[in-house]
Amino acid sequence: MRLATRENGCRDGQLVVVSKDARRCLAVPEVAPTLQSALDDWETVRGHLEVASKRLEAEPDLGLSLELTSLMAPLPRAFQWVDASGYLSHMERVRKARGAEMPPSARIEPVIYQGLSDRNLSWCEDIPSDASWGTDLEGEISVITGDVGPAPTSKEALEQVRLLMLVNDVSLRALIPAELQKGFGFFHSKPASAFGPFAVTPDELGDSWRDGRLFGRLKVEVNGEVRGDLRTGEDQDFSFADILQYATRTRGLSAGSIVGAGTVSNRDSSRGVACIAEQRILQQLAGAQAESLTRYLLPGDTVTLSFSLDDGREVFGRIHQMAVAAKEARRRPRFLDSRA
After folding, report:
1. Which of 40, 50, 253, 272 would be a feasible disulfide site paired with 228, CB 3.0-4.6 Å?
2. What is the pTM of this model?
3. What string of DSSP letters covers 23-44?
4. Which regions span the lipid bilayer (predicted)?
């Protein structure tokens, strides 16, 4: 089952069920007006949403034509956005780039931070940028949880994974070192993230969702140039079960929390990268001089992220964004073809 949120003049939008061909949608306001309201009462609501999804497939005239540019982030605002570094190869490379050592504990438990969640960008929304910020993309997979109690077992944690999404977790690399030196972590350097148009239930993913990891292909493009053709899940050192267990060691997560597994990274560097910082460090390791390293995003640059299962289905839709000067950033229907 695929779900999305349409603009309707309200802050949290309108929940819709999406057809498999991503051309039609059906609102069920009597069941759940918003995705958050569905998550709050998931055990009751899910069955009704599944009935609506089946009807949408069986009745070609049911529902409305889906205008992709009308879609907000599946959760336009969330109770929490928690991101982890689930791929150690990414963490190792990026820390090396800024001259920082890997903390010994990072190899036995995930590193996480709590980021901005009161404003999530849609799949086609501008990335506010500035030449001095070192604006970077980060291609990731995330989950939306139900209520996860403190100290769950691995099984209990994964039972609360309600939906999965594609993410562009924007980072401002030039601002990170000074913030981390203060000892309180990210703030200005981690602005709003963007999410693919569709949130998908685990059963929709079949065997690709296993052991708390999503296996498939993440393609990363900047200005139409492929920067990464990566395999998710394959080199994921910490599963979503690991991340959820660590995040809830002393507290729970409320229904509607978004949890990311971190920038996708493969140990085989020939597969490319999901962020520019990692590309730059690989170039440095290959002997490139500072002036020849790939630059970070500048206004006018475009970013495209797509994820496909092994059968070729792009279940999350695509993320298409343009970096623009911060004062000019706004939601614009720049890209029209994001159908899965």
Report:
1. 272
2. 0.94
3. SEEEE-TTT-SSHHHHHHTHHH
4. none
